[in-house]
Specification:
The complex is a heterotrimer. By secondary structure, chain A is mostly helical. Chain A contains 10 helices and no strands. Chain A has a domain of about 150 residues: MetI-like (MetI-like fold), CATH 1.10.3720.10. The radius of gyration of chain A is 22 Å and the shape is flat. Chain B is α/β, with parallel strands linked by helices. Chain B has 2 domains: about 130 residues, D-Maltodextrin-Binding Protein, domain 2 (3-Layer(aba) Sandwich), CATH 3.40.190; about 90 residues, D-Maltodextrin-Binding Protein, domain 2 (3-Layer(aba) Sandwich), CATH 3.40.190.10. Chain B has a 5-stranded mixed beta sheet. A 5-stranded mixed beta sheet of chain B has the order 9-8-10-7-11, sandwiched between helices. In chain B, helix 5 links the parallel strand 8 and strand 9. Chain C is an alpha/beta fold. Chain C is about 40% helix and about 25% strand. In chain C, the strands form 2 sheets. In chain C, strands 6-7-8-3-9-10 form a 6-stranded mixed beta sheet, with helices on both faces. A 4-stranded antiparallel beta sheet of chain C has the order 2-1-4-5, covered by helices on one side. In chain C, helix 5 packs parallel to helix 6. Classes of the chains: A mainly alpha, B alpha/beta, C alpha/beta. At the A-B interface, helix 5 and helix 9 of A face helix 3, helix 4, helix 5, strand 9 and helix 6 of B.
Chain lengths: ~250, ~270, ~240
């Protein structure tokens, strides 16, 4: 078989998947009510925009939180390290659903924070941030000790070492994992519907219930998420290429 | 002599009855009708006291009793399928269940997809209002700045989406979350059916108020597939008989004694 | 340079890597440390290079004591150069950028001045053609040579080299050793830890055999290799110089 171009191969396989999916859909009895879904396209768009906004904000915040917590985890002071460790274990060990419900109805309520978008974004960012922290920590640990020694040996301060030597290498190491985590974040944002944030999944469910459809809403829903996650994956692969150590 | 004749008469009648019953029983067993197949009844078991589970996890409640009585009437075994509310109609249409007895309101919209029996209960949309909320009557509901919560898929949801133009609507998938939001003042009102609203208010008397006069009346009916005319006739027949026999009275007394007393006292129309 | 080390001890937890080590050299251009693995020679080098602080003991190099606080040590490290066995260079930067990094960020040169300063050394050691490659694109020998250059371009007082050829194959080892020998020719003082015994003999003004945390032999190359009466030392050389 001749060497096929990447793009061609991807297109063929994607089309094959879609064909299989269509075949499966045709097996479901009853007609498909696409007109109902088209009628509500405004709702889909609104939900998609909310998901986009939420995800972007939570994305940026979670990277920041991850960085801070990773530094906490690397600290020599045992109290500081403990704060980081307990945070990571609690967040990773409990479901996001529980964190959202407790976060909005208990914690945010106690401190008087009413805006559900803000609370939802914060909870989502804190959730993802814990995973980011572990990814960053792993990245930092993976850098050979001699790199730090080399940096010190040429007389760089700790901050300079971190900024010029460690950080750039760590970024290259963690880029694939971070991109994966960000894609997860976009999909996890669907859970914010439990505190009545009108994001894409909730809107799709509403359309489903308004039109008594079984599945019609879920297909545009999947497409909606792909529109957000695919560009992210592509951008991440692009960055990985650019930052490779070989040219 | 007369006694002997009477005795013979009775014996013959009894004999005739026995033959008739046997004949019918055999006929019933031989005929390949639906009569022998179990009746799958769909409901969401999260709506006490109509659809719920007892402490052992067995389905129980008004709708479950109704389903069991229906099964008896039809001579069919009843299987209760626990399905989320907005999945009931799809399940009916694909044949997973044969009918829906889940405190479902018969709306014109739903009637486009499925058929309904005669209504068996009248209720309405009512409000659970936070104690600090500015809502003083149902007229205050559709005002700018008012926040309203509804449960996804319910008639309250449809009502809010279509008819509330100025108030802000929050859609939740859990009744408990909606109540919490009212209590915490995150929304001004939760629109739901009168019985639940009554119960929630009873549980949280200091933080909520209940407006139990329906802002919209609704009837509940049993949902069926379109074209399933035979079953529909059977169910209508059952409902008529059940009501005549006082079945609904008994259900009211068994499951809703307090609410019944309260509603009657306050001149709010009770269900059955 | 002249080194005076008195009762140097380095302890890590329960392990005492250097145990009351004392050494006094003459005025030398090159000091080579040899000995078995784990004997303490790398540990000693790290202390001399200002990377680690000893548990106890004193060190004077050219009559100046080594600082014991981090700030003082960092200032000291800026005046010397250190080359490790591997992973010296920063992989995300080209060779050229690796070279100018200390000049720009530590010694305050502008980028242009730094680029100018490295031009001649790059040419002298035939590395100019590789300057824009990243370490992953260079051979092991080229990597080490660039690492030595990087240590050199800041015009250090002396160099410390910790087994610079141990990770290289014989051909690359030779090119690096040639460069070190050339350095000797330019008058740069250095302390070298190595297993390349023949090379050690050739370039060392003085050799110190470090074993069991102390100095087991010390003197000129001839004295240590041929006239040592420490059984441990002689048996080591016999094995290594097969």
């Amino acid at each position: 078989m001749q060497q096929m171009s990447r793009t061609l191969a991807h297109t063929i396989v994607a089309l094959a998947f879609m064909a299989l999916l269509t075949l499966a859909c045709l097996q479901v009895p009853g007609e498909w009510n696409w007109s109902g879904v088209w009628e509500y396209r405004q709702k889909f768009l609104q939900g998609w925009l909310v998901t986009l906004g939420l995800s972007l904000a939570a994305l940026v915040l979670s990277v920041l939180i991850g960085l801070v917590v990773a530094l906490l985890l690397a600290a020599r002071n045992p109290l500081v390290e403990a704060v980081g460790r307990i945070y990571v274990e609690l967040i990773r060990g409990t479901p996001l659903l529980v964190q959202l419900l407790l976060g909005f109805y208990v914690i945010a309520n106690a401190v008087g924070l009413e805006n559900r978008f803000v609370v939802g974004t914060l909870v989502l960012a804190a959730f993802s941030g814990a995973y980011m922290a572990e990814i960053f920590r792993g990245g930092l640990d993976a850098i050979p000790k001699t790199q730090r020694d080399s940096a010190r040996a040429i007389g760089l301060t700790r901050w300079q070492s971190f900024r010029l030597v460690i950080l750039p290498q760590a970024i290259r190491l963690v880029l694939p994992a971070v991109a994966g985590q960000l894609v997860s974040l976009i999909k996890d944002s669907s859970l914010l519907s439990v505190i009545a944030i009108s994001e894409l999944t909730l809107n799709a469910q509403e359309v489903n219930s308004f039109t008594y459809s079984t599945l019609e809403s879920y297909l545009p829903l999947a497409v909606g998420y792909l529109l957000l996650t695919l560009p992210l994956s592509a951008a991440s692969r692009r960055l990985e290429m650019a930052f490779r150590y070989e040219r | 002599m007369q006694l002997a004749l009477q005795g013979a008469n009775q014996l013959l009648t009894r004999l005739a009855q026995a033959i008739l019953i046997t004949f019918l029983a055999v006929a019933g067993m031989l005929s390949p009708s639906e009569g022998s197949q179990p009746l799958h009844v769909g409901m969401e078991l999260s709506y006490p006291p109509f659809e719920m589970t007892d402490t052992g996890g067995k389905p129980t409640g008004v709708s479950v009793r109704l389903a069991e009585a229906l099964g008896e009437y039809l001579g069919r075994e009843v299987v209760i399928e626990n399905i989320a509310f907005d999945g009931l109609i799809p399940a009916l249409r694909t044949g997973t269940i044969d009918c829906i007895i889940s405190s479902m309101t018969a709306t014109a919209e739903r009637a486009r997809s499925i058929a309904f029996s005669e209504p068996y209960l009248t209720t309405g949309l009512t409000l659970l209002v936070g104690k600090d909320s500015p809502i003083k009557s149902a007229d205050d509901l559709d005002q700018p700045g008012i926040r309203v919560a509804v449960k996804i898929g319910t008639t309250a949801h449809k009502f809010a989406a279509r008819d509330l133009k100025r108030a802000q609507v929050f859609v939740l998938n859990r009744e408990s979350a909606a109540v919490l939001e009212v209590i915490q003042g995150k929304v001004d009102a939760f629109i739901y059916d009168s019985l639940s609203i009554y119960r929630h208010h009873r549980r949280h008397p200091d933080t909520t108020r209940a407006f139990l006069k329906p802002i919209r009346e609704e009837t509940w009916a049993i949902g069926l597939r379109k074209g399933d005319e035979e079953l529909r006739q059977q169910i209508n027949g059952f409902l008529k008989q059940f009501r005549a026999d006082g079945g609904f009275e008994k259900l009211g007394n068994e499951f809703l004694p307090e609410a019944k007393a309260f509603f009657t006292k306050n001149n709010i129309p009770f269900y059955f | 340079m002249q080194l005076t080390i008195h009762h140097l001890t380095q302890q890590f937890g329960k392990v005492r890597v250097l145990d009351d080590l004392s050494l006094e050299t003459g005025s030398v251009g090159s000091l080579v440390l040899v000995g078995p693995s784990g004997g303490g020679k790398s540990t000693l080098l790290r202390i001399l290079a200002g990377l680690d602080v000893p548990t106890s003991g004193t060190i004077e190099i050219d009559n100046a004591g080594l600082p014991r606080d981090e700030n003082g040590l960092r200032a000291y490290r800026r005046t010397v150069g250190t080359v490790f066995q591997s992973y010296n260079l920063f992989p995300h930067l080209s060779a050229r950028e690796n070279l100018i990094l200390p000049l720009v960020h530590v010694h305050g040169l502008t980028r242009e001045a730094a680029l100018e300063q490295i031009r001649e050394p790059l040419e002298r050691f035939q590395l100019a053609g590789h300057a824009d490659k990243r370490p992953a694109e260079l051979s092991g020998g080229q990597n080490q040579r660039i690492a030595i250059l990087r240590a050199m371009v800041v015009r250090p007082t002396r160099l410390f080299l910790d087994e610079p050829t141990s990770a290289l194959d014989p051909e690359m080892t030779a090119e690096v050793l040639d460069m070190i020998e050339a350095l000797k020719g330019t008058g740069t003082d250095f302390v070298l830890v190595t297993h390349a015994m023949h090379f050690a003999r050739r370039v060392a003004d003085e050799i110190a055999f470090i074993g069991d945390g102390g100095v087991l032999a010390h003197g000129t190359a001839d004295a240590v290799f041929d006239h040592c009466d420490n059984a441990r030392v002689t048996s080591f050389f016999t094995k290594v110089l097969q």
